[in-house]
Amino acid sequence: MQDIYLSEHYAELNPTWHEEDSPWKARQVRDIIDRNNLEISSFCEVGCGTGEILLNLTNSYPDVQFTGYEIAPHAYQRAKEKETSQLTFKFGDALEEKNANFDVVLIADVIEHVEDYIGFVKGMKGFGRYKIFHIPLDLSVQSVFRGWPISNLRKNVGHIHYFFKDSALDALRDCGYSIIDFKYTASRLELPKQALSSRLMKLPRRLCFSVFPDWTVRVLGGYSLLVLAE
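The structure corresponding to this sequence follows.
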């Protein structure tokens, strides 16, 4: 499955590399950093794509040094064009980096793509003090019942692992992490370029979530999980 990122295949299916989602994702990251009063001077994103999330974060934290790692050549070349004195990108597998240590490591919408995601998550344990994971919650009653939403995620964006809230949190704990904070993010409700079915479900999901958040996410889907761990 990794070949779709090393070749041009993923770029052909997703020519923007989801850059339009980056301002929204950066806001979610800022929220969990600020509400936990994290003091940071170095920040790393593993699987940074074209670097747009990091670029957005530099505007909020001008005194922080940012580093991004990316294995896809096409995305890395686009990221390199955004480098500044505050923002650096590195090509290759972050797990092969020796002696790297950051205050915060961001792993956003990555583990669902990684064949050995358990080994990957364990390998990230010593990469920095705090880790922020953003994990799509692809498993819901409606997605399993219909089937095709999960199939399309596999075919179009390379999701090969699927989570609901408890399985995501348990996986992190099983890898030795302590959960500091977590929250749902309304990925299918707030991100741009959503399918017609997601747009039609936007209001029902919001109304149900306001009363029964866990039930809504588990049954109707449409949300992701943002986790702060160490």
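The longest strand covers residues 128-136.
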